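chain below, 70 aa
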Amino acid sequence: MSIRFICGANTQELEGVSGKKLGEVKDQLVDVLNIPSPVQCILGGQSVSDDYELKEGEQIEFVRPAGDKG
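prediction:
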């Protein structure tokens, strides 16, 4: 089973990242998904930190914090 990462129209599904910290995987996906800085990481409608430990089957969305212009 994989974990899905979404940033805007870009999507990436990765296997073998369960148990890793979100920040570690996010750093690897910055260029692939064109992740903006700063960014909020959302799981199930709730914000999660870079220390969050990823679990199989999850979907993480990277969004620009409200009020920031791009």
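The CA atoms of residues 10 and 31 lie 11 Å apart. The helical segments are 22-33.
thats it, cya
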